[in-house]
Hints:
- By secondary structure, this protein is an alpha+beta fold.
- It contains 48 helices and 38 strands.
- The strands form 15 sheets. Strands 10, 11, 17, 18 and 19 form a 5-stranded mixed β-sheet that branches. It has a 4-stranded mixed β-sheet with strand order 12-16-15-20.
- Strand 21 and strand 22 (625-629) form a beta hairpin.
- Helix 40 (1161-1171) crosses helix 44 (1229-1247).
- The longest helix has 26 residues, at 68-93.
- Residues 646-667, 687-785, 826-841, 843-905, 910-944, 1131-1157, 1297-1301 and 1318-1341 have low confidence and may be disordered.
Amino acid sequence: MRSRSNSGVRLDYYQRIVHxxxxxxxxxxxxxxxxxxxxxxxxxRDNVYCILAVWGLSMAYKKIADQDEDRAxxxxxxxxxxxxxxxxxxxxxxxxxxxxxxxxxxSPYDSLHAKYxxxxxxxxxxxxxxxxxxxxxxxxYLLILAQMTASGLQIxxxxxxxxxxxxxxxxxxxxxxxxxxxxxxxxxxxxxxxxELNASSIGMAKAALEAMNELDLFGARGGPASVIHVLADEAxxxxxxLQSMLPRESNSKELDSGLLCVIGFPAFAVDDAQxxxxxxxxxLSRLQGKYGCxxxxxxxxxxxxxxxxxxxxERWELRMFENIxxxxxxxxxxxxxxxxxxxxxxxxxxxxxxxxxxxxRSEDGILLVPExxxxxxxxxxxxxxxxxxxTREVVGRCPFLxxxxxxxxxxxxxxxxxxxxxxxxxxRRLGAQKKPDVVVQVVxxxxxxxxxxxxAEHDLHVQTIAxxxxxxxxxxxxxSHLYTYLGRNRKLGLSGxxxxxxxxxxxxxxxxxxxxxxxxxxxxxxxxxxxxxxxxDLLASNFTTNLAFLTNNxxxxxxxxxxxxxxxxYMLDQDKIPLAMIQTMxxxxxxxxxxxxxxxxxxxxxxxxxxxxxLSFLGSTEDGYPDRLHPDVQTYLDEHLLRSFSxxxxxxxRGGQLRPRTLRRRMSCKGAIKKTRSINVDSDNLGMEGxxxxxxxxxxxxxxxxxxxxxxxxxxxVFATTPEEGPSSLPxxxxxxxxxxxxxxxxxxxxxxxxxxxxxxxVRQQEITVPKILIQRHRADTNFADTEVEELxxxxxxxxxxxxxxxxxxxxxxxxxxxxxxxxxxxxxxxxDSASANSAAELEQAFLDEMVLELAGGGGGAGDANVPGEESxxxxxxxxxxxxxxxxxxxxxxxxxxxxxxxTTNLLQAIANSRSSNNNSNNxxxxxxxxxxxxxxxxxxxxxxxxxxRVVTVRDLLKGLYEKACQQKLWxxxxxxxxxxxxxxxxxxxxxTDLLVRQKQVTVGxxxxxxxxxxxxxxxxxxxxxxxxxxGDDESTAMLTQELMVYxxxxxxxxxQLFHEMLRLRVGxxxxxMAKELSRTLNCDGEAAxxxxxxxxxxxxxxxxxxxxxxxxxxxxSVARGNLSIVSCKxxxxxxxxQIGLGxxxxxxxxxxxxxxxxxxxxxxxxxxxxxxxVPRDFYSRVWTVLEKCQGLAIEGxxxxxxxxxxxxxxxxxxxxxxxxxxxxIPQPEYRQLVVEALMVLTLVTEHNMVPTLGGIIYVEHLVxxxxxxxxxxxxxxxxDATLCCAKIKDGKEQQQAASGMLLCGGAAYICQHLYDRWxxxxxxxxxxxxxxxxxxxxxxxxxxxxxxxxxxVALVLDCVxxxxxxxxxxx
Length: 1372
């Protein structure tokens, strides 16, 4: 330890340096630092870094302050820090309106300014004159504010300032999804003003959120009102995205030295030690030079080649800056601090020596840190030839105060005046250290005594809601609402938190409010919103995933996480606790579940060990009553809490016996739902087909949303766009006038003007009354006659098969609309129309009569498509059917003997339940009257369906069908009706954002015509619109797409390794491949496979998707009620290759089955990898090297120009997306994968320097087709399998087939299917030859391997490869 005198002398020396170099420039009025003597602008970021040296020196004086003089210097330095931090705070508070607006818009033009006048703190440039959106700057301010406050400084003086800082937290909490201009204020490195997602901004925001959480801004003298609150899930989202991006900075900057401030001081934002060192090593290896580090590759700032007359760069000129980028000594200062916090004295000394060599010594001997070093103009050519060889010169400011401040901090640490803990009083530097395992506490609460007793039967003893008192259990939406009061301030015009998202980390705490304790159930378990919560297996799976998530991500919080689950009646399956739930609860009792330590108990037991947060911000502080609840909060709690978990109301429908009636015709709408399906499996060219082009014609604002329009196949329309859209068996062809329509609404040319006007009026009325997301399909008045609709309603009453009911309702929605009033039948006056309108109606009715008779000619009802768990209607009498009549007094269903028809009664009961829960109506009104029933006749039925005196619309019937399908686990019907009703899956927008911010683009729909790419986060309404645009009227596939996107987001959060080397997730192709795999496994046709796929339970759907993503083999077993279960081939639940409908083969059959299975495995592998867009490691950077040696690469008509290498670096994400966009022009996944393999062969040619250049534009498909030609020639020589198809000597018929694009073997893109596959049998020996594709996991081999043919094709096609003589083959 130094003697007092030496320490004091040395500190006085640093105090003089700090005063002369830093404090001398501080403005006395605002406390801000101008950029230079000639520029009065004060940047937030630079100012905060400048003051760090002053703060550090003040703490050094505080340690040795045994004299009054030292204490005075300490106080002066501290007040300089306070002055600057308050100056920045006042400048930002002057823009409080921007903070409020930005929470809503997140627009760059609504952001806080990045710089202010150092004279008065006012803005110096306009909103659109600078890249102001720099989240890292605001985050850095909050982070240092938290650290300074924790060190004892008092910076915030009032509760209004506390409210503003709380809103700054809201300003940065979505940093993980907001593109900004970043630490260098440029956004995209071309400096064209395009913001992008920057890892340095996300990391700084994550650090600030964690530092501010539970921080009292008044320090030791504060109270509950001065505490800042941060939802832990927001910081975790930033962490997850940051870890997925590192070591990349952004799309255009594959590496950035600015990341040093994120992995080390001051942010310490990365918790993974391995990732920290990988990022640092990448920066040192690629950006470090003799004079410091380059900011990023091809940085043109202040280089001699930069044109100073313009701010932006042309894309082609970026290549000029390579190897001559300026080097910044600033980053040596960061590296000194980095190693000082790592206690690596050797590295600290190494970088201190390097820095000292390049510092500039002033006239009085003070060492100054210059801004940067550039290559002199006359030495640029030599530097190009030998990078790093030339002497550089200082450019920019000297001293550079940002760097000078960090240099002084490093010196104070080196000389022992400061300990690292004093610069980091919040201990952020310890984040990467290993922590003990987290024990997750689990509480299960029964909704009522009935559920509790059912669980007790399985030796699972839980409490009910009433028994956990005084602790109150509520759904997450209550917590979400309470947090909207956080940060509200009337005087400042701040409205508080806008986001309603509450994640699992937040709901795993307990909350105190005055003398009450609250526990909240997880947000994703919301039975009112999501049909996926009706699947107990999925709930159990998600619960297990959440436990593991909590174990890995419970950080910086005192106490253990506590998950509270509610066992409700929704979970019951046929009035029993589902097996999946029982098994999960038993595992919880054991103390471990999938490697996670858990503890099952009651809330009372866990009170002392749980993390508890005080909801102190709910007091009426602004009104002067901080101890009282805010009046609005009190009202909300009184009104809503008691009903949050109220028991479900039920309605019993009873009635007398009804006499049966007969149907005049069989059903005319059989298969209406199936006709909307667009999944194409039978075609071997996956992705070639898609929904009707009809879905593209949506221009007018009055056109209903695509998901509620009739698909060309959903019903037979006389207004079909083309004759092919109607059924081929129609006996009647209408004239051309009725075959053409100009818009979505059918207009009969013979119609009177009044009828058209009435239709327009109807449309206008519906637009006003129906929410945007649920605008229904509007019917034309003359589309269907009343008698047709009456029969459909009668059929609906008479069927008990839910699939039949679904077909009828689909038909009614297509023709009449969702809000069709069934009571309006029989009362419309049809005599108002002109004679021409009547004649048109008669013509249309005649057509419909013919159509109905034609479709009914087969004699089968809709029930012929037998549904698992339902009795086929073939066994019922075709004459006598059960009937349902519902009116104001009665609603029952009966068969011939008067026995109530349970299925239809339950459907209507579900409608009634929906009504009663929505309207809180009295169930006692639902009484029946036999006398009234006896007076019912056919004419009364024309009044439609009524219930409790109110009209039953088609929407109500659909809701009832949806509830019944959920109960019976008919998932295909559930998905379809959910889509028609506009229901949503859990947090769709959040799921898509989770994928996008991890640098995965998402496409929906089928290539090549109906595929839509999502590249930026969208609001939920726009997302659902986009998805339904892509699939037209296929409600089932649209809902399945939403569901799969949620599962993909789950997997990328928990198992990101599944998505390695995948840039774009094409959900449409994934659906096709899933159906194709089911078709192969079940040995069924495409239509049946599509039905099986759509009928998979949500859990099995997620399981199948996992197997597709992971490449694991799976098999299918049948479970209860005919549902399918996806199991791993290693599972004991299934034999190695068990398939539905197939016995286990034995002997020779088994051998043939095995060979057949192996024969298709590489075709499948290519199809899977192609559909998933999976590529080999370093694929894109290797393609860059190919592009550098040729003039371009042509793929499916799209040319990747060599100029891309001038603009982009090999590891740049922008370049990878360009390559991906070109590859995505190929609709067939297996063909896409062959093109990838051809590109890999080209990369080997360049990497082994076989030729100096590859010549002009290379047509990659030409290489693939040449390889196919060579393959077929070899097949003819050895009499291989391909001689049965493509290698066969063609006769006239086969030539015609080939000309039409059809290959005998079904190969995609005119490539023989045997080339796609691994196994080829030749001649009588049936020799098996391996054709192993160039994939991630295996090297190509064999003289007949695809790699061999690709290599030969390259040698033959490329002119640059010598055609004669010998060359050493570098490809082995």
